[in-house]
Amino acid sequence: MADSNQGPISTFPDPPPFYTHFTPSNQATLRAHRSTLGLSASAPIPASSLPADSPLQYLLPPPPPLPENYWSFAEHWTSPERHPSLEEFGIQRLYSTEDEDEVAGANRVVELRRLSKSLLLSFLELVGVMGVNPEEYHVKTADIQTILFNMHHLINQYRPHQARETLCLMMEDQLQRTRKETEENRAAVRRVEEALLGVEFMARTVKQGEQLDRPFSMESKEEKALEKAKLKDAQGWHLIMDSTQ
Amino acid sequence: MADRLTQLQDSVDQIATQFFSALRYVSTHHDAEPVGSEARMVDEGRTVDSPEVFEAAMNELARDLIVKSKQIEYLVTTLPGIGVSEDEQHQRLRYLEERLKEAEAERVASVREKERAREKLEEVIVNLRRV
């Protein structure tokens, strides 16, 4: 692997080598295999129904991770996913909670404010300790550390809540945008219809005017048509000018 | 601009840094007092500020800490969606989803209407030009 050192370093590892087996023809074979087994499109194909050395084995989804926990990209995950509690990190929990996982919204504010006050007080104590007996600093710094961990933990627990809240706001925003666009489209349609009605009305007046002016001048039919066309043309251009403004 | 929670976490980290820098300032800039009849200790590696400057700097550091603490409290009280339960949020999301679907359908219809109106207008204009 001499050249792998010279190549660009990618953020993510290379895909596993078996991705090359995901060809249209292999997928078609797998579909055919599924139908010969008489399975529905969503039912999993048992791995034992394929020869063990067949590349089609790679196309079958792997079994889901075992319960409890697993590793992915050098990170530890719990299955199902949840926020690990402070106790699991060996940190003392400083806030009270009725429910193990979730601290209610208003309560969280109270707890965070309390923690921030404690933080300041602990610092004051630390400064005092440093003035009297500097060797004893670690007691207070440990306190401060615990308080900071608790605060960060409380804030992070709140993140899913905030994500939902943000989503709500974004959706409201989009709703407003969509409604506005609908309104604008309808207004445009109304304007066009009004303009067309105006043209129609004008055309009719012109026609009537011609009939009244020269009811018997049948011989100048051509002339009449020409005049009408000129008028209509002029109106039409006005209309175009109006609508393009 | 980062969201409220990130701002809050940043502020918490900043106050911790301020703790450190306040202590560090005091330990590196303080003057020494002679004990009894001994000579005043002089530390070459330390810059000693004059008493006025030192006092002013300590005041400023203390004030900054209080301001930061107040900022944290303010951010805490303005956390988004305080007092809204998860179920309420889910309900609201579902409601908004329905409204969005309706609004989108209406929008598509209005676009079609607009297209038709445009065609009608175009037809009239073409006719006018032909006459």
Number of β-strand runs of chain B: 0
Question: Given the structure, what is the number of helices of chain B?
Answer: 3
Give the class of chain A from helix and strand content and strand pairing: mainly alpha
Strand content of chain A: under 5%
Mean pLDDT of chain B: 86
Which ranges of chain B are low-confidence, i.e. pLDDT below 50, for 5 or more consecutive residues? none
Q: Could you state the order of secondary-structure elements of chain A as H and E?
A: HEEHHHH
CA-based shape of chain A: flat
What's the N-to-C terminus distance of chain A? Answer: 67 Å
Biggest sheet statistics of chain A: 2 strands, antiparallel
Give start-end ranges of low-pLDDT stretches of chain A.
Answer: none
Q: Quick one: how many beta strands of chain A?
A: 2
What does this structure look like?
The complex is a heterodimer of chains A (245) and B (131). Chain A is mostly helical. In chain A, 58% of the residues lie in helices and 4% in strands. Chain A contains 5 helices and 2 strands. Chain A has a two-stranded antiparallel sheet with strand order 1-2. In chain A, a hairpin with a 2-residue loop joins β1 (68-72) and β2 (75-79). The longest helix of chain A has 55 residues, at 159-213. In chain A, 10% of the residues are buried. Chain B has 131 residues and is mainly alpha-helical. Chain B has 2 domains: 1-82; 84-131. Chain B has 3 helices and no strands. Chain B has helices spanning 4-29, 51-77, 86-130. In chain B, α1 packs antiparallel against α2. Chain B is elongated, with a radius of gyration of 34 Å. The model of chain B has no long low-confidence stretch (mean pLDDT 86). The chains are: A mainly alpha (245), B mainly alpha (131). At the A-B interface, α2, α3, α4 and α5 of A face α1, α2 and α3 of B.
Features:
heterodimer, A: 245 residues, mainly alpha, two-stranded antiparallel ribbon, flat, B: 131 residues, 2 domains, 3 helices
